[in-house]
Task: structure prediction
Amino acid sequence: MTEHELSLTGKSINEMSAEDAERITDEVAYAKRMLDILSLIPGSLEEYLSDRQGFLDRHGIRLCREDIDFLCCPKDPDEKLAIISDNNRISEMPESFFRYRQFIGNKIAIRDLMTKKLCDPDNINMKKWRARQIRRCDGVLGGLNESFVHTVVTYELAEGCSVGCKFCGLSAGPLKKVFFHTPENSRLFKDVLKSCHKILGDAAGYGMMYFATEPLDNPDYEKFEDDFYEEFHTVPQITTAAADRDIERTRYFITEISKGRGFIHRFTIRSLEMAEKILESFTPRELVMVELLPQFPEAPAFVPYVKAGRETEESGIQKADGDPGTICCVDGFCISFPDKRFKLISPARADERFPKGIYESEWVEFENGADFEEKLLRYITDELELDIPDGKVLKMYDHFTLGEHNGKKCIISRFGEAIPLKEPYMVRIAELVKEGVHDRREIVDISVYEKLARPENAYWYLNRLWDAGCIAEKIFE
Ligand code: SF4
Result:
């Protein structure tokens, strides 16, 4: 980095000259384009290595070869690691690499902010329920849970999906209905959004306008997006597998994002042909805020499909521990507009009982906005299990065992989480829950009788285990 580039490292893009901001934005876009090509196009790294400048010229990547080498094929990977691990060696990184890394760091920070704050609902029951589901998912999904934001609501504008991806983790059926933007439908949509906003708070504005649907199947999606923006002053994130269907329509959505009306979109890339079309049709700057997901096996960065939904139907339930077994990132309500109904959903690891990797309640039908609001509130008040049930035998989820981690007693999930048991009474209570034959009162009585805990400690710790998602609840039994 030059002295001038170094002097900018502590500044945000808004605190620098237009010229610097422009250069840095380009650097990030070109670095991202290079990585997108390498992740999508088979043989692209070899092609680059055999003719570096020719490759960069052909793909319009205006970064020098030294920058690209440092980014994706450093001569000495250990030295690169040493540079990026040492804050005093920032000047040895190319500015493009430093800024791209910062860009990814910011995206991760925003993702974490969504999980911890932005998607956290105002409604106290929903807040408590969602917090426990997030902790439960730490146990059942392991570290992979960090990539799930646990949004509290999602809105479907169609029933079924026209794309029919063979890897669909939600087993979406064929497209059956589309919710068009008629005056009546727009009224219902706005009323439901308003109710969600009133009940759940701003978190309702971080939901998506799709679930087991393809957003671009709805020709009026843009109009609903405007209604959504009117209510929440943001546009929802889109994940689409049909970004190549109508390039100019897709360009509209990414332009909206670049105007700051939203944050990010994701394109599922189904084939090499689609990858080439997307890379040709959009400039690196246009795709800065669009993640391209390689979902075809020839892609160098292809990751085997999540074993849920269609994949479990095809190949049966497989318990691969490196796979979360779900693609559901919603802990809350899925609202279907074509059918005027909603259901509670929550991630699970795909198994015989939850082949899609999702808990789904029965649907609740509604007539209009007022009816929706009343039924949603009633559901939240009456149906969510918030506290440890009285008089019911408590069981620990099967994926937990009691053991030792780093020489300390713990509850250990076979998917990676370890919850330390710091006191002997905690160990005993965990053992009693794991036995799966006692109710809460009996567990407290036993630990008091054995002189391990005072009743208030025992009750307190059972509640902690409940909040930590260790004790099986009715919807997952
Ligand atoms: S993954 Fe998405 S686009 Fe593909 S079939 Fe499923 S819902 Fe449709």
User: Anything to note?
Assistant: The mean pLDDT is 93. The longest strand covers residues 330-336.
